[in-house]
Amino acid sequence: MTKKSHPAPSLLDMKRVSTHPGEMLDEEFLKPLNMSARSLAKEIGVPANRLTELIAERRGMTADTAIRLARYFGGSAEFWMNLQSMYDLTKAVVEKRKVYTAIVGRRAA
Questions:
Q1: Which of 19, 40, 77, 103 could be 70's S-S partner, Cβ–Cβ 3.0 to 4.6 Å?
Q2: Domains of the chain from N-terminus onward
Q3: Closest Cα to residue 26, out of 18, 35, 17?
Q4: Three-point CA angle 37, 41, 45, nearest 5°
Q5: Rounded distance between C-alpha atoms, residue 36 and residue 55, angstroms
Q6: Using CA atoms, how far apart are residues 54 and 47, in angstroms rounded to an integer?
Q7: CA 26, 28, 33, 38: dihedral to nearest 10 degrees?
Q8: Low-confidence residues of the chain, pLDDT below 70?
Q9: Are 55 and 22 a contacting pair, CB within 8 Å?
Q10: Which DSSP string do the residues of 63-109 spell out, in sequence order?
Q11: What is the pLDDT of residues 11-30, one digit of tens each?
């Protein structure tokens, strides 16, 4: 008996924008610790507005901030950067799906 393989879902199949890293920081890290963005900023040595703007989704995650958050909370900087990457990609797809699906692919020989 052969297994039927199902292709992995395409990015173009995404229906909603992925979670912004600022929302993740606020909901999963700061709120459970009853910690403010200002106090975290002081702990990791960045301006408070960097984190408040990130949480408000007015700025994206930078490599510098990702490294600092990984050092402070544990985990990896890649976790934070992957959140930003998925947010950016899914936002583009949701906003321009028709443009992207109209592109006819061509494969190298």
A1: 77
A2: 18-100 (1.10.260.40)
A3: 35
A4: 175
A5: 11
A6: 11
A7: -20
A8: 1-9
A9: yes
A10: HHHHHHHHHHHSS-HHHHHHHHHHHHHHHHHHHHHHHHHTPPP----
A11: 778 788 999 999 999 999 99
